[in-house]
Amino acid sequence: MDFLDKLGKKASEAYKVTADKTGKIAKEAKLKLKMSELKGQINDIYEEIGKKVYEKHIRGEAVDIQKDLEEECTQVDVLSAEIEDMLKECMDLKDKKQCQKCYTQIEKEAKFCPECGEKQQDSVKEVELLSQVEETGTESQEHAEADEYIDSEIEATSDVEKQNSEEEQKEIDEESREDLEKTVEIESDIDDE
């Protein structure tokens, strides 16, 4: 019985790890698909901008960016910001961050970028809070603000995780269960030998 208990615990742990990894992979795939769609929308807007500029050129009119292209430029800005947020979320799933100088993906704990050698600062919010503490000398208030920020980030993260539909989770669980069954079967075959 002791062997079966150990095997059950190992199988349970393997299942949890597999389910976690599968969930992250599925979430990353969704984010990449959405980023691709947004990039397509940006390219369509670029095409619109080009047409407008060329039409103005043909008519011999001057192009006034604020008047003629403001709406399109704003749309590109909004879509680019969405893509940037999704890219950061993908990097968080892989425990990575971007170098502040060359924008290469690096490990979250890296103090220096392996590509350009730039020293990496901690997150912008931490740097801002530290500078505020130095200026005001009121550390307790700043710690409270930092705690509120961390709590809001945790809540936002949990809200995003809750958005995964039950059907997707069932598919992930089914795939994970199949992988686990194969693993247990292989382990039992090895033990039998």
Rounded mean pLDDT score? 75
Number of strands: 2
Distance between the termini: 19 Å
Dominant shape: elongated
Question: How do the strands line up in the largest sheet?
Answer: 1-2
Instruction: Kindly estimate the percentage of residues that lie in beta strands according to DSSP.
Output: under 5%
How many domains?
3
Helix fraction bin: over 70%
Explain briefly what this protein structure is.
It contains five helices and two strands.
How would you explain this protein's 3D organization?
The protein has 193 residues and is mainly α. The chain has three domains: 20-120, no CATH class; 130-162, no CATH class; 165-193. The chain is 78% helix and 3% strand. It has a two-stranded antiparallel sheet with strand order 1-2. A hairpin with a 6-residue loop joins β1 (96-98) and β2. α1 (2-59) runs antiparallel to α2, α1 crosses α5 and α3 (124-136) packs antiparallel against α4 (139-162). The two termini are 19 Å apart. The relative contact order is 0.09.
What attributes does this structure have?
elongated, 193 residues, two-stranded antiparallel ribbon, 5 helices, 3% strand, mainly alpha, 3 domains
Topology of this structure?
Layout: H1 2-59, H2 65-93, E1 96-98, E2 105-107, H3 124-136, H4 139-162, H5 166-192
Antiparallel strand pairs: 1-2
Helix pairs in contact: 1-2, 1-5, 3-4
